Amino acid sequence: MIDPGPALQAAYIALLTGFKVDGVSIPVYDSLAPDKAAAPYIILTRSDTRSDSTKTSFGHKLTVTLDVVTRFAPGPVSSLPAERIVAALLTLLFPAPRVCPLTVAGFVLWLYSFQGTKPLTTRTPTDTLIRRLVTINHQLHPA
């Protein structure tokens, strides 16, 4: 049995490389953004991998989280930039019913569904982070 997680992460990074919203490039980082990363950006994490095997075949269920991060200096803040990025991201990832733009090397992605979003806000003495966690479920089998 092979863990499809790295191949799924690579598929997301390939799809999101060059992603732009309102003419602004939105970089994607795998698992952790650099300390000095300029917002906005997306952090890709794989939450978990579970077996979906049967007596006759291997299978996996995976959850991926895309953490959309925007940053504001002290003063007024808005969730709208994060919401615009999430809307563009979901349009890219789910262009039409039953259409999946991801190609996962060595695997068949046979179920792909949007689980939801979760807002997070963090204030520090120097800035405010407005984040949206986008969660997507996947079921894969070896090709």
Task: Give a verbal description of the structure.
- With 143 residues, the protein is of the alpha+beta class.
- It has a single domain (5-142), classed as STM4215-like (2-Layer Sandwich).
- It is 18% helix and 44% strand.
- The protein is built from two helices and seven strands; from the N terminus they run αβββββαββ.
- The protein has helices at 5-16, 80-93; strands at residues 20-21, 24-25, 28-30, 41-51, 60-72, 107-123, 128-142.
- The strands form two sheets. A five-stranded mixed sheet has the order 3-4-5-7-6. Strands 1-2 form a two-stranded antiparallel ribbon.
- A hairpin with a 2-residue loop joins β1 and β2.
- The radius of gyration is 16 Å and the shape is elongated.
- It starts with a helix and ends with a strand.
- The mean pLDDT is 90.
- It comes from Fibrella forsythiae.
- InterPro entries: Gp17-like, Viral_Tail_Comp_sf.
How are the SSEs placed, and which strands pair?
Elements: H1 5-16, E1 20-21, E2 24-25, E3 28-30, E4 41-51, E5 60-72, H2 80-93, E6 107-123, E7 128-142
Parallel strand pairs: 3-4
Antiparallel strand pairs: 1-2, 4-5, 5-7, 6-7
Protein name: DUF3168 domain-containing protein
Organism: Fibrella forsythiae
InterPro entries: Gp17-like, Viral_Tail_Comp_sf
Features:
single chain, 143 residues, STM4215-like, 5-stranded mixed beta sheet, two-stranded antiparallel ribbon, 7 strands, Gp17-like, DUF3168 domain-containing protein, Viral_Tail_Comp_sf
